[in-house]
């Protein structure tokens, strides 16, 4: 029985007893007179003070000659006449009348209930306390039960058609679907499907969605649980939950078990502060044991997701456990177009919207970013009382995702507005004049998020490899805001702080990681060690001398000085264009598209050469930095 229902029933019982007591007190006729003992009653009878005696059960009501009434009680079962005779009262010599009445059944029941009720009340309280204690014990014991949520495979809500931009990953997981549907096809050839599939990728790339699509395509039950749900404050709870999860999975075989953020329990053992007795390590050990204990005919496939594969325990990744890794990277332009088609399905769009053009404007966006962008555009259209989503809403949604919502209510002085206009104009003009910089897409001096203004550059194609020339042009573009402030106002402000920080990081990365320094040559400097139990903390160990450290600082300074000089030359030559660009920004606050090109129309044509893809290593960190808008 539900403890809550039991508690309510007990309260109702007490209320009923209280009502009975009130009824007994108010409506039951009260017995008249006062109470006396038998000795006093017999004495009054011998003195001829008694007129009549009424007998009802074991209660005697004595009516006195004076009109008063007294009550007394006799032993149960004793005859009243024997009582009087033994007390020396001769009825034949007195006028005492003895009247015998039937016992009051209602009074007997109430009297019996009054005697038994305390026992019932105590027994009820004990029962209630025992049930409550039992419920607490059940909750304590339920700590070891799995918290996985089970989704039935009869009505799939997500299929591969709902997932876009990860064609290679879907192809890899198609084998899992076929194994769950037609296991005899693989067993006939002696093939063994991987027992564990690890989905690796940045946040928002669709790892959870893809795993649900696998279950939807296969039409099998789907158990979903997060890695953090295994571990509790009690020792052994995580291991118990792992055992219970796999027991449920085997009972519902064939099925899929999905563990999201498995790095919460799958980190390398021995790296924490708790040693081998750490609760997390016990949970990991139980996962390893359970994945090894699958029978050959048990069609249970474990799919896990993480964005930190570097911290996982090697025993978890060996063949026989998670022996297949599927990488989900940020989608390219084709993938973004397909993702936009999925998320705009069923939404009214203006006829002039081209999803391919929109995909070019969103480099570096994940599937979650694109879904959020489309949703923001729909909200903006509804806010503006439109019946369809237009290009202006989509453009605004892109800016909201990249830089945050507009802060038009922020009041700034005319001088600060002019300063921001020249700062952003310096970024845009330098980027426009450098052949290896990305094209300028939009300039705005409207504050967004923590930015006072921003200039957004869009690459003409997805870039996976960077060259030294591209890095140098990007450094000069970042220095454009600082140079413009000094050129126009004669001093710098705090505005270029983020630009200088990003430029310094890029220059140091060029020297220490990519070997782009002519003086130091092709060599990496410093060894990075990730402290697993501290999350993303990185400890960099120096493997070079103090003299090399000075040379690194000198090379970084040379790259930054070169970028500053190039930006200064461009803005000095085209100072008139910078002034006109700032004036238009002050008047309109935002420039993009044809309006921006009209300002640049009399500048020398700058061909954006296609830089050959040199080298095999992709500058992932630099790519992520370059895709950010240049903040003012």
The whole-angstrom Rg is 43 Å
> Strand sequence of the main sheet, in spatial order?
6-8-9-10-7-11
Largest sheet: 6 strands, mixed
Low-confidence stretches: 135-141, 273-277, 531-538, 609-627
| Name of the CATH class of the largest domain | Mainly Alpha
Please tally the helical runs, counting DSSP H or I stretches of 4 or more residues.
Answer: 21
Distance between the termini: 65 Å
Number of strands: 17
Q: What proportion strand? A: 5-15%
CATH architecture of the largest domain: Up-down Bundle
Element layout with pairings:
Layout: H1 3-27, E1 34-35, H2 38-46, E2 50-56, E3 59-64, E4 69-73, H3 80-86, E5 97-101, H4 105-141, E6 149-151, H5 167-181, H6 183-187, E7 196-200, H7 207-218, E8 222-226, H8 237-251, E9 255-260, H9 279-292, E10 300-306, H10 314-317, E11 324-327, H11 333-343, H12 355-360, H13 367-383, H14 391-403, H15 414-433, E12 440-444, E13 454-457, H16 468-489, H17 497-512, E14 527-530, E15 538-541, H18 546-573, H19 575-588, E16 590-592, H20 593-599, H21 620-626, E17 630-631
Helix pairs in contact: 1-4, 5-7, 8-9, 11-13, 13-14, 15-16, 15-19, 16-17, 16-18, 17-18
Give keywords.
632 residues; alpha/beta; Signal recognition particle alu RNA binding heterodimer, srp9/1; Rossmann fold; Helicase, Ruva Protein, domain 3; 4 domains; five-stranded mixed sheet; 21 helices
């Amino acid at each position: 029985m539900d403890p809550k229902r039991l508690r309510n029933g007990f309260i109702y019982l007490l209320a009923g007893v209280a009502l009975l007591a009130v009824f007994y007190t108010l409506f039951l006729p009260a017995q008249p007179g006062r109470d006396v003992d038998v000795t006093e009653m017999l004495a009054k009878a011998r003195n001829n003070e008694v007129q009549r005696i009424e007998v009802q059960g074991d209660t005697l009501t004595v009516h006195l000659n004076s009109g008063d009434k007294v009550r007394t009680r006799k032993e149960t079962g004793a005859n009243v006449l024997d009582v009087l005779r033994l007390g020396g009262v001769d009825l034949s010599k007195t006028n005492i009348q003895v009247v015998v009445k039937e016992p009051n059944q209602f009074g007997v029941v109430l009297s019996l209930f009054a005697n038994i009720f305390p026992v019932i009340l105590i027994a009820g309280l004990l029962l209630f306390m025992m049930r409550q204690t039992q419920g607490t014990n059940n909750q304590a014991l339920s700590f070891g039960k799995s918290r996985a949520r089970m989704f039935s495979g009869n009505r799939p809500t997500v299929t591969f058609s709902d997932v876009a931009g990860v064609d290679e990953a879907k192809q890899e997981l198609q084998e899992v679907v076929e194994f769950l549907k037609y296991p005899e096809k693989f067993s006939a050839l002696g093939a063994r499907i991987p027992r564990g599939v690890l989905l690796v990728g940045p946040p928002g790339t669709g790892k959870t969605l893809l795993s649900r699509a696998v279950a939807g395509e296969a039409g099998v039950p789907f158990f979903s649980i997060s890695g953090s749900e295994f571990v509790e404050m009690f020792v052994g709870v995580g291991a118990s939950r792992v055992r219970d999860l796999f027991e449920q999975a085997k009972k519902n075989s064939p099925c899929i078990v999905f563990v999201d953020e498995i790095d919460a329990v799958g980190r390398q053992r021995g790296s924490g502060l708790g040693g081998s007795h750490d609760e997390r390590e016990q949970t990991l050990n139980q996962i390893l044991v359970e994945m090894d204990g699958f029978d050959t005919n048990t069609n249970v496939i474990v799919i896990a997701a993480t964005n930190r594969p570097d911290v996982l325990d090697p025993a978890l990744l060996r063949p026989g456990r998670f022996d297949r890794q599927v990488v989900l990277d940020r989608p390219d332009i084709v993938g973004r177009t397909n993702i936009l088609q999925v998320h705009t399905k069923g939404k009214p769009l203006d006829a002039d919207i081209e999803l391919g053009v929109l995909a070019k404007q969103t480099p570096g966006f994940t599937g979650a970013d694109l879904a959020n962008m489309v949703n923001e555009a729909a909200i903006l259209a509804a806010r503006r009382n439109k019946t369809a989503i237009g290009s202006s809403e989509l453009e605004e949604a892109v800016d909201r995702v990249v830089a945050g919502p507009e802060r038009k209510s922020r009041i700034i002085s005319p001088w600060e507005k002019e300063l921001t206009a020249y700062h952003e104009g310096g970024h845009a003009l330098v980027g426009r004049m450098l052949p290896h910089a990305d094209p300028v897409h939009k300039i705005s001096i409207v504050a967004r998020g923590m930015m006072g203004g921003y200039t957004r550059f869009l690459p003409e194609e997805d870039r996976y490899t960077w060259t030294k020339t591209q890095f140098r042009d990007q450094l000069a573009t970042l220095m454009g805001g600082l140079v413009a402030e000094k050129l126009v106002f004669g001093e710098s402000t705090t505005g270029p702080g983020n630009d200088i920080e990003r430029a310094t990081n890029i220059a140091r990365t060029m020297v220490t990681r990519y070997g782009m320094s002519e003086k130091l040559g092709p060599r990496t400097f410093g060894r990075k060690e990730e402290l697993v139990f501290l999350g993303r903390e990185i400890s960099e160990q120096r493997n070079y001398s103090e003299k090399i450290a000075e040379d690194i600082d000198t090379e970084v300074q040379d790259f930054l000085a070169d970028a500053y000089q190039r930006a200064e030359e461009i803005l000095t030559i085209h100072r008139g264009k910078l002034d006109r660009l700032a004036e238009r920004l002050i008047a309109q606050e935002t420039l993009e598209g044809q309006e921006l090109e009209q300002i640049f129309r009399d500048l020398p044509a700058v061909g954006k050469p296609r830089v050959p893809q040199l080298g095999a290593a992709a500058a992932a960190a630099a790519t992520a930095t370059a895709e950010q808008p240049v903040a003012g």
